[in-house]
TrEMBL record:
Ranges of residues in domain DUF5107: 69-385
Name listed for the protein in its UniProt record: DUF5107 domain-containing protein
Top-level taxon of the source organism: Bacteria
InterPro entries attached to this UniProt entry: DUF5107, GH-type_carb-bd, TPR-like_helical_dom_sf
Pfam families per record: DUF5107
Organism of provenance: Microbacterium algihabitans
Length: 986
């Protein structure tokens, strides 16, 4: 990203200094109210550099066990080695017990969570912003709470969100943060909320699928906790096993009973039987020597958390397990390897663990579904605990620790003042100990029973009025070992059409990075060409990639069988999908007929009703559209898109007052809804991507003039490193103008698109696909539209079509360096024309000789093509200054130097610059170091800190097997995959 305007060349403060509340709010705080305000924070910051100019087509990249595909996001590959003082926008929340800081420019993360009663940061406060190359699109920062959706880590984690402050009738304050998902255009709002008189931090979440398609998602809150030898992660007592990513492996918990991540914990415990805690206790950070994830397999309880025995403080997380089953710990590991990663992410703070909470998911990857227009709402709760010990039971009201070593000792902590609360121990139905006490946040109180415990045991805290605040009983669970996932067979090895369909569905739903669902579905149709489920799955896939005619053929095949004997099937998805396709094919009447039929099914009634109403609105049938919306009231789930459409229709029907009322009601529920804000005249951020999406909403509702005004506003904004949508805005305007017969204005818009800055112009989505196609149809000479359409198609997986568009663009005279590079990749991967690929890279590097990314890719291609190390080294020697600006290219250069007898020179380079590893890519610099030392006859040595990594004690499971095939369950494969031919897929 570009440098913040408030950045100084000074390194910035070593610690974050929290400002006092503004004078206007201090009286409210003194009176016990909760307050919130905006005030920038100056934080020592290592700036992320600007993104690469080239789209990263990482279709087969494995990331967090799922797809690491990053297109259309620009990819950031470098972070500054020198810190600066930078002012970050910050929103502060405070009450008598808590102090929080939310950073909107970093995804709306909670960066500070401070317990005033115990002088303790219950979430890890990182005093610097020091990104490491861990995120999906590059930079990622540690500390606080990161909110991850619709995949992990969140695509927009290093991008800004819009915020607003809400004051509730109950005295609460909420900082709402609105996230715009750059991949699917879905919307998420998370509200960080505190209340007067309470230590509870609530995060209220609204996830809204504002698209016309069913989407997959997961949601994890990634909570960092600063750790040391005394830090313990605690889970409910009924947790007996924990699992790795995708349930590919498991072990007992809290005492690991088998090798896990290559570590034989049972052997470590046997070798040190006197150790406290035992060396096989993986709930203690000190015992885990390697980067390790574990997610609980199951629990009947709603809480978990972490506790620092040395500090006498920690935190609890609570959420209803029926929708929030996910409970996970991650650590880099307490060993030199992990400490090196800590140093990449902070200056003086750390180490830390992550204690993550998953909603609608219990593993990673583990995706759920959102129907078109569907909204899911939920809340998560956290609160600090004082010197309680690990909680054995917790609610939003209180937590309890129960010591059963000698009799029963129950220690309680509360989240709000509880005068005359009743502590009670019950044995076999009889109250054996009871007393009243005034309990306050930040302190604990206890009750003890030293007698025998024979029979059922129960510990409880009640309010003075008798309400149960927390109740604990011993857990009794079945110790049977849970299931472990296995790799699905190849299509030819699967017996039934149903299993072929379900396997393909799993691969699609979980976004599997190295195995496609298409061969499974195609094999199913070979056996039964009319299968409804498979045809709908393939129809949906073809529709999403813009292959409308093929998609419609699959839907019609499905409908033919589905309605052969029953015109009213139990599931009307085929009608709904058919309506979407018919819309794209320019057949609105047929589409409306399909949507009308889809509305007979309650599952699809809301989505189909919205699409039908929008179609009628575009055709000017206002009263008919309003009748459709009225028919959904009271029977269909709430969808803010429907209410925005209602407001548009009411305005057209001269009901401006009613329309304004509808918009106010929408904004009361979704205060940062961009389309509702625009229509209501409320000011919004000048975010080009968000404005363009608002324009797309308006076009879908038939508000063409308003949409054109927004698109014009987009084209007047500066190019944004989060993605350049300016050329697309021109092309969308051109398509809208052409459709209503304004031919000259449309031609002018296309001309403006061709004259636009194309940096980071990575279009995606069906609206972009249609607009670029319309531009080519209107003007066959438009090379820019072909170039951009090729980007979109390649990102969508339509590689042959992409190469055809890129070739056409070059034939029409466009020699943009990004076009040349993209075409070179496709010539290698798709056409298998090595000479054409090499010649295009040669031309590209002549065009941009100082482009280090281009030089790196050219060298990687040279290696693929079998060029000698001497020839490769000669090229890099000529551009040495450029080479040394990139870590990966420098490592290649060092390796080549060593191979060609210049190991001393190579070692000097390794000792003379800092390197930044990336998650899963560890070992590259270390291997070069070892190779160089060996060539010089030096004894093996630990690498210098400048290499950014340390030697691991244990060997992690390899992502790529010895036979060269990628492990089906690989969680990370960061290698450059731009030159990956289809038959090389693992």
């Amino acid at each position: 990203m570009t440098m913040h305007p408030e950045t100084s060349t000074a390194p910035g403060p070593a610690e974050i200094e929290l400002p006092d509340a503004p004078s206007a709010l201090r009286d409210e705080l003194a009176e016990g109210r909760a307050i919130a305000w905006d005030e920038p924070l100056t934080i020592r910051t290592y700036d992320a550099h600007e993104p690469s100019a080239y789209p990263m087509f990482l279709d087969h990249r494995v990331y967090q066990g799922s797809s690491g595909k990053v297109y259309p996001l620009p990819f950031i590959e470098r972070v500054s080695d020198e810190p600066r003082a930078r002012q970050w926008q910050a929103v502060h929340l405070e009450n008598e017990y808590l102090r929080l800081v939310v950073l909107p420019e970093l995804g709306g993360r909670i960066h500070v969570a401070y317990d005033k009663t115990t002088d303790y940061d219950f979430f890890y406060r990182n005093n610097v912003i020091k990104p490491a190359l861990v995120g999906l699109a590059g930079p990622w920062v540690s500390g606080g709470v990161e909110f991850n959706w619709p995949q992990h880590h969140r695509p927009a984690t290093h991008l800004p969100v819009e915020t607003s402050i809400e004051h509730g009738d109950d005295g609460s304050v909420t900082v709402w943060c609105a996230d715009h998902d750059p991949f699917t255009r879905m919307a998420a709002q998370h509200g960080v909320r505190i209340r007067p008189g309470s230590t509870v931090v609530e995060v209220a979440v609204r996830l809204h699928n504002r698209t016309s398609e069913r989407q997959t998602f997961l949601w994890w809150a990634n909570v960092a906790a600063r750790v040391n030898d005394d830090y313990q992660s605690f889970f409910p007592e009924d947790v007996r096993y924990v699992a790795d990513h995708a349930r590919r492996a498991l072990t007992a918990f809290p005492r690991a009973d088998r090798p896990y991540y290559g570590v034989d914990y049972a052997a470590l415990a046997a070798a040190a039987p006197e150790a406290v805690p035992a060396a096989d206790r993986i709930d203690f950070y000190r015992n885990i020597p390697v980067p390790t994830s574990y997610m609980i397999v199951d629990s009947e309880d709603d809480f978990f958390g972490g506790y620092d025995h040395g500090a006498g403080a920690g935190f609890v997380h609570w959420a209803e397990r029926r929708i929030s089953p996910g409970k996970k710990q991650w650590t880099w590991g307490d060993a030199p390897f992990g400490h090196a990663w800590d140093a990449q992410l902070t200056d003086e703070d750390g180490p830390y663990v992550e204690l993550m909470a998953g909603v609608y998911t219990d593993n990673q990857p583990d995706f759920s579904w959102l129907l078109p227009g569907e909204t899911k709402t939920f809340s998560q709760y956290w609160y600090p605990i004082p010197a309680l010990g690990p909680a054995h039971q917790a609610t939003p009201d209180a937590a309890v620790h129960v010591d059963r070593s000698e009799g029963v000792r129950a220690v309680f902590a509360v989240t709000s003042p509880r005068p005359a609360a009743v502590m009670r121990i019950v044995v076999d139905g009889r109250v054996v100990a009871e007393r009243r006490a005034d309990l306050h946040p930040g302190t604990v109180d206890e009750i003890v029973w030293e007698g025998p415990v024979e029979g059922a045991l129960e510990v409880e805290l009640r309010s003075a009025g008798g309400a149960s605040l927390v109740r604990w009983t011993p857990s009794v669970v079945d110790d049977a070992e849970p299931w472990v996932a296995d790799e699905p067979p190849l299509p030819a090895q699967i017996d039934t059409v149903e299993e072929l369909y379900l396997t393909g569905l799993h691969l699609s739903q979980f976004r599997h990075p190295t195995r496609s669902p298409l061969p499974y579905w195609e094999a199913a149709l070979d056996r039964d060409p009319g299968d409804v489920r498979v045809n709908l799955a393939l129809g949906d896939a073809r529709y999403r990639s813009g292959e409308y005619a093929e998609a419609l053929r699959h839907v019609e095949t499905a409908l033919s069988r589905l309605t052969r004997r029953n015109a009213n099937p139990t599931d009307a998805e085929a009608f709904y999908l058919g309506g979407l396709i018919l819309q794209r094919l320019g057949r609105p009447i047929d589409a409306e007929r399909a949507f009308g039929k889809a509305g007979w099914d309650g599952t699809w009634a809301a989505a189909a009703g919205f699409e039908l109403g929008a179609s009628l609105a575009r055709r000017g049938r206002i009263r008919a559209a309003l009748r459709v919306l009225d028919s959904l009231d009271g029977v269909a789930a709430y969808d803010s898109r429907r209410e925005v459409l209602r407001a548009v229709l009411l305005r057209r029907a001269e009901g401006a007052t009613e329309a304004d009322l509808v918009l106010r009601e929408v904004l009361a529920v979704e205060p940062l809804n961009p389309t509702a804000r625009h229509l209501s005249g409320a000011p919004g951020a000048d975010d080009p991507g968000l404005l363009l999406d608002t324009a797309l909403d308006l076009l879908h509702l038939g508000e063409v003039d308003d949409a054109l005004g927004l698109l014009a506003r987009v084209t007047g904004l500066p190019v944004c490193a989060a993605g350049n949508v300016i050329p697309l805005a021109h092309y969308l305007a051109a398509a809208a103008l052409q459709e209503r017969g304004e031919v000259d204005a449309a031609a002018a818009a296309r001309s403006a698109a061709r004259d636009s800055d194309l940096t980071w112009a990575f279009p995606h989505g069906l609206a972009a696909f249609d607009a670029l196609g319309a531009a080519i149809a209107a003007d066959d000479s438009d090379a820019v539209a072909r170039f951009l359409l090729g980007n979109l198609l390649y990102g969508q997986g339509r590689r042959e079509d992409a190469l055809a568009r890129w070739r056409e663009a070059m034939e029409r005279g466009l020699r943009d360096v990004v076009l040349l590079r993209n075409a070179a990749i496709a010539e290698f991967t798709v056409a298998r024309d090595d000479d054409a690929a090499w010649n295009l890279y040669e031309e590209a590097t002549r065009t941009a000789p100082d482009d280090a990314r281009l030089l790196f890719e050219r060298d990687q291609l040279a290696a693929k093509l079998g060029h000698s190390t001497a020839d490769r080294l000669a090229v890099l020697d000529e551009r040495r200054e450029v080479v040394l600006t990139r870590d990966d290219l420098t490592i290649e250069y060092v390796t080549l130097l060593t191979s060609e007898g210049r190991a001393g020179e190579a070692r000097g380079i390794l000792l003379g610059r800092a390197f930044h590893p990336w998650e899963g890519g560890e070992g590259r610099a270390l291997a070069a170091w070892d190779q160089t030392n060996a060539a010089l006859g030096l004894a093996p040595a630990d690498p210098p800190p400048s290499l950014g990594e340390a030697r691991p004690r244990y060997v992690a499971p390899a992502a790529v097997r010895d036979d060269g095939v990628t492990d089906y369950f690989a969680t990370s494969l960061p290698e450059l995959l731009l030159f990956h031919r289809e038959d090389e897929r693992g």
